[in-house]
Amino acid sequence: MFPQSLLLTVVFVLVSAVIGQNFLGLGLALLMRRAHRGVAAVVGVCVVAAWVLPEIVAAFVAYAFFFRDGTLNQLTGFAGLPAVDWLFEHPMLAIILANIWRGTAFSMMVYQAALNDVPSEVTEAAEIDGASGAKSLVFVTVPMIRRSIATNLMLITLQTLAVFTLIYVMTAGGPTNRSTTLPIMAYEEAFRYSDIGYGTAIAVVMLIIGAAFSLAYIRLLRERNPS
User: Fold this and answer.
1) Contacts 24+ apart (CB under 8 A), 207-216
2) Which of 45, 129, 189, 222 has a CA 20 to 30 Å removed from the CA of 76?
3) Is pLDDT at 40 greater than 90 in this prediction?
4) Is residue 192 included in any domain, yes or no?
5) What is the CATH number of the domain that holds 64?
6) Which domain holds residue 96?
7) Rounded distance, CA 50 to CA 30, Å?
């Protein structure tokens, strides 16, 4: 069971944090930078509301959304689509989407602050030189906010690695351990099966994984020495 939990943890962190929260947060920050002030304010409030909710409340909201008779199936029912028991048939997908919904606001705020520090003269000069929006983003904006990207990736990776309440409320690691990440497994082994040593060993593995991610991101944070 441990290799499976390790794999599910890596998938959960990579898809929901490194890919989902990171890219969606950057996209929202870019859109809100160009959007009308009223639209940006409404979108910002909607996104941040999920982040400021207590984790237990956000977990129950996500559970109610993905439950077989929940909000998602009610909405898809209007389109004539059959009901899907997301928490039973696709448990990892449900908790990944829930974690993206809950955590994207943090990445968005980090990138909003970083983009505000990018001099407008630099992006305007890139546009004058013929750089399109995508090229300006990739070759001008992203390199200038590289440190913010690395910092955000480190923080959301560590936060997602330690997610427990959201998963436990939504699926409790089931069905048949298909959503049992390392925090859930450590809790089950230590407190349900009274194997404190095994639970502690799993916690140490989580610590090592977090340290490995942190060291990788710290290397990205270092400025390159001029040649």
Assistant:
1) 209/9, 209/161, 209/182, 210/157, 210/158, 210/161, 210/162, 213/13, 213/154, 213/157, 213/158, 213/161, 214/154, 214/158
2) 45
3) no
4) yes
5) 1.10.3720.10
6) 2-221
7) 20
- The total number of structural domains that make up the chain: 1
Beta carbons of 87 and 66 less than 8 angstroms apart: yes
pLDDT band at 226 (very low <50, low <70, confident <90, very high): very low
- DSSP string covering 56-125: HHHHHHHHHHHSTTSHHHHHHHHTTPPP--HHHHSHHHHHHHHHHHHHHHHHHHHHHHHHHTS-HHHHHH
For residue 225, what pLDDT is reported?
45
* pTM recorded for the entire structure: 0.90
Indicate whether 183 belongs to any domain. yes
Q: Rounded to an integer, what distance in angstroms lies between the CA atom of residue 203 and that of residue 126?
A: 48
Is 226 part of any domain? Answer: no
Residue 21 reports pLDDT greater than 50: yes
User: How many other CB atoms are there within 10 angstroms of residue 157's CB atom?
Assistant: 22
For residue 215 the two structure tokens come to: 């060291």
